[in-house]
Amino acid sequence: MTENNQDKNQQEEVSLYEKIISRTEELLGDRRKSLDEALKRAGEEFTSAGHFTREQAEKVSSFIKRDIQHTVDNAEKGRETVKQAVAPKRVVVGAHSFFSKILSNTAETLSGWATKTEQHLEFKTGEVTSPGSLTCKNCGEVIHLKSTAKIPPCPKCHQSVYRKSY
User: Domain ends where: 61, 85, 109?
Assistant: First the structure.
């Protein structure tokens, strides 16, 4: 077969494909035919008009069925992927994970602030401080300073680290 004949056959098949698919869409539009029935009828119309052979119509119809099935398969895969992505359990787990990260980060930040704040409230024996209450971090004994003074050791346990409150 020459190159010109091959090109002509390819063009005929492409033309027939487009014609059959167009006619099949029309036949499916009235919703009284299945895909197979519409394809068969469209192929028969073109072969009875003498434009194409039955073999050509069947071959092209098989291509159309293949392409439609491929489209349907991909649509079903896509639908399944979307269903999995928005499945309630998955969404709930995702939300829990998201909030867990937020809460963990917030807890870490607050813990850091608490540690820094606590360090600023920690006073030791021998330091000078303004009036206020000092609570021994070891035994909980509270001493009350009425004026600025040097911090003494705990009168109860003799430790030297306090937490100050006003």
Answer: 85
